[in-house]
Amino acid sequence: MAPDDASSHWHTIAAAALPTNEQLEANRIARARASGEDQEPFFEHYSDVETDTTGGSVLTHTDEKVFVATPSGDSYTLTLISQDFTSAAGTGVTNVTASRKFAGLYGAVGAVSAQPFYVTTTGNTPATWTVVQPVHPTGTNARLLGASSIDFPPVLPVGKNPGDIFIGAFTNIVNDGTVPPDDKGRLWRTTDHGQTWTSIVGNDPTHRLPNVPIYVVKYDPVTPTTIYAGTDIGVYFTTDDGVTWNRMGDNFPMIPVRDLYVAKNQEFIRAATYGRGLWEIYPSATANQGSPGNGDYDRNLVIDWVDVGAMSARLGVTPAMTTPPYYSWILDMTPTSDPPVAAIDDGDLNALLGTFGGHP
Amino acid sequence: MKHLLIILLACGACGDNIKPGTGSGSDTPSSPLSYTDPSGGKLRLVRDTTNTSTTSIVLDLVVGAAPLTGYSVGFDLPLDDTRVTLGDFTPGSALDPGSAPVAAKAALPQQGPLAHELVTALSQKGSGTGAVATDTQLAAGTKLYSIELRLVPQAPVGVVFDGTASGFILPSDGMRDRLGNTVVDAKDVAIGKLAIVKPD
């Protein structure tokens, strides 16, 4: 879906129609009791398996195990793909994530600080997931509590394999009762498949990720140096791989952000908040100001029929267009005047055809 | 000497290397390029039977048994480009790609992210010369475009691509409407099998 306008402001979407958590839970319990299913496992989170090119697979979990749900006619078939994480006392899982680029790479968030995350690279094949080492923010054996979210980068440096690098977010304090130092914070990255961790909240106090609970972290699906964090006080993002962070957009209240979705083509980001509904922002909408596009509409790093189709359909489109297909700055490859006029035109299509079959 | 020459000519197609144009000598020369049409598919890549060359083959992308309504179409097809090269690419008129520029192209890059893949695209245009701003209804069997693949001289016998193989799904292909919605996705595009064989 394309944005319905172009701005760097956050917009609420469908907030009035959203039921409260209490209503959802009441409905769930009522349905379970009515159908006699109150002993069935309760699936807590879902993660779309985008690498499933046949479509439809969804990762989900209870507090004990992770499952993959694959389409089967009009319903889904559930397959258990992990160990029982509660086999050790006090453990369990609280969230799941599927890599958007590397097939079979899944992560789960642990319920205890000694096992903050679990990772598998075997995809839908049942396996024992690797237990990740805890984070020690103070240099002692004290562990950071409240693991909340895990995400994998869309591309890897040479020599690294899927599962070597991932980011972990946390919501709590250290288990010795102290708050993690501001220059360590609650967002950490490993590059050795979870053996050791490095903080990525940044060193510059004026552009550091706030030392508040972080509920969700997401890599940009195309650019691995761009990362989004849903915190207790809104959405923050970095475009330099965690060196500096800034609050994203304006018009967003100081509220907890519990989940984020970054569109595959980077055109919009959606944020689920605690108590204030869903919000949406279009981060690329103003990038046409002096920033030529490269024609890679679907951001898959190749120029092929999808890009030709997207551009051809938009010939003659400007940012003023109020009906779809909307203007997309990444298709505006060749400024036609100085200062450039934002429009998709024949010059852009010629430029795109010149790179057809190659890199953007 | 004359006897030896006949033997040499007769053996022109012996072994695994095929010489373009060396047919059986009959009135209708056979081609070393053998294509098996696929079965089914909302979009199908089929042989253009009007082509009779022994050194090339023309394949048509056509609508399957059911009509479709779309705006753009294309595919990325990995193939063995040691056996064939890309010849003429001829857009059809059913989905009109317009002109100046024509919103259609085919390439067989030798390097880059799509190296050794036959990359094709065709789209209508939202404005400009020959623009068609709405989706077009396409009857069953409508030809969308044609691709000529030319035999590489001395190409060895073997498979160029095999869309009939079990589990084969193109990495990217299909049809979309003007808003970018998928009309036909990769699994519903039927590709046949192209191979170089010893001519009859």
Separation of the first and last Cα atoms of chain A: 22 Å
What is the number of E strands of chain B?
A: 17
Characterize the biggest β-sheet of chain B. 5 strands, mixed
Gyration radius over CA of chain B = 19 Å
Q: How widely separated are the two ends of chain B?
A: 26 Å
Number of domains of chain B: 1
Helix-strand sequence of chain A:
EHEEEEEEEEEEEEEEEEEEEHH
List its salient traits.
heterodimer; A: 360 residues; mainly beta; Methylamine Dehydrogenase, Chain H; Type 1 dockerin domain; 2 domains; four-stranded antiparallel beta sheet; 3 helices; globular; disordered N terminus; B: 200 residues; Immunoglobulin-like; five-stranded mixed beta sheet; five-stranded antiparallel beta sheet; 4% helix
Question: What do you see in this structure?
Answer:
The complex is a heterodimer of chains A (360) and B (200). Chain A is mainly β and 360 residues long. Chain A has two domains: 11-281, 7 Propeller (Methylamine Dehydrogenase, Chain H), CATH 2.130.10.10; 287-360, Type 1 dockerin domain, CATH 1.10.1330. Chain A is built from three helices and 20 strands. Chain A has helices at residues 21-34, 305-313, 346-354, and strands at residues 11-13, 45-48, 58-61, 66-72, 75-80, 93-98, 106-112, 115-120, 130-131, 147-151, 166-170, 187-190, 198-199, 214-219, 227-231, 234-238, 246-247, 257-262, 269-273, 278-281. In chain A, the strands form five sheets. A four-stranded antiparallel β-sheet of chain A has the order 1-20-19-18, with no helix packed on it. A four-stranded antiparallel β-sheet of chain A has the order 2-3-4-5, with no helix packed on it. Chain A has a four-stranded antiparallel β-sheet with strand order 6-7-8-9, with no helix packed on it. In chain A, strand 16 (234-238) and strand 17 (246-247) form a beta hairpin. In chain A, helix 2 packs antiparallel against helix 3 (346-354). The longest helix of chain A has 14 residues, at 21-34. Chain A is globular. The model of chain A is unreliable at 1-7, 15-19 and 285-289 (pLDDT under 50). Chain B is mostly beta strands. Chain B has one domain (11-196): Immunoglobulin-like, CATH 2.60.40. Chain B is 4% helix and 41% strand. Chain B contains one helix and 17 strands. Chain B has one helix at residues 2-10, and strands at 17-18, 33-36, 43-47, 56-63, 68-70, 72-78, 84-91, 104-107, 117-123, 136-138, 143-151, 155-156, 158-162, 172-176, 182-184, 189-191, 193-196. In chain B, the strands form five sheets. Chain B has a five-stranded mixed β-sheet with strand order 7-11-4-3-16, with no helix packed on it. The chains are: A mainly beta (360), B mainly beta (200). Chain A binds chain B through residues 2, 53-55, 300-302, 304-306, 308-310, 312-317, 324-325, 344-346, 349-350, 353, 356-359, and chain B through 71-76, 97, 100-101, 103-105, 107-109, 112-114, 117, 119-128, 131, 169, 172-173, 176, 178-180, 185-187.
